[in-house]
Amino acid sequence: MKRFENKVVLVTGGGSGLGRASALQVAREGAKLVLVDLNKDGLEESKKEILSVAPEAEVEVVEADVADQKEVEKFVQYTVDKFGKIDGFFNNAGVEGKQSETENYGIDEFNRVVSINLNGVFYGMKYVLKVMKEQGFGSIVNTASVGGIRGIGNQSGYAASKHGVVGLTRNSGVEYGQYGVSIKAIAPGAIMTPMVEGSLKQIGGENWEEVGKEFVSVNPMKRFGKPEEIGYLVAFLLSDQADFINAAVVPIDGGQSYKY
User: Fold this and answer.
1) Among residues 105, 123, 127, 158, which one is catalytic?
2) The CATH fold of domain 8-189+226-251
3) Ketoreductase domain spans which residues (predicted)?
4) Helix, strand or coil for residue 176?
5) Residue 242 in contact with residue 234, Cβ under 8 Å?
6) Is 176 a catalytic residue?
7) With 60 as the cut, is the pLDDT of residue 69 above it?
């Protein structure tokens, strides 16, 4: 029996990066999927890739903004209407934001990053938790970051929002464990995704690859992580095998969190 046979998994940020890699992994293991993203083309590409490796998979795509509470409520309800339940929720959509010291960090940019990374995660949890509480089962994995458990510099909005995700995860895990729902967060380090590549280009321009080498120098393994490595972890944490892992934050950063 595949771990996700007859299970329904909802993924935000499913149009690229960690969301796509995780969706691919749970689809290989039998999941029915609803993918959410603002990037319509990215959603279609994710669906195409999933069906290429799991031709029997049921995959729905929804173009939506996680920072819009009403849109979040709608895509959660769409998932329930379509499949009757939500077994797993990868609450993953996010942005990195601009690079700047705190005193120069734009207020509008700070609010934008927090609205997506923190408010969006809260909205997703709010509506999915209601479903899972009524079901009496379910698993949520939120995407935090190494920047949610330590300082990273020049990313006030990102770090603040990801620290908030850690707090939401721990608090809600304490609240909802009694209802058969487990809630955890992953804390990725430097993973080579389009978002991270864009951030490196923002810093280094044409020399972004050299900046990338410096970026991973703080990582004891001296390399970028791969999106599929995140996918393996997310699939495990969403599975029944990880049901007793609750209110926890799991680093996946090559040891960066523990270096100092």
Assistant:
1) 158
2) Rossmann fold (3.40.50)
3) 7-189
4) helix
5) no
6) no
7) yes
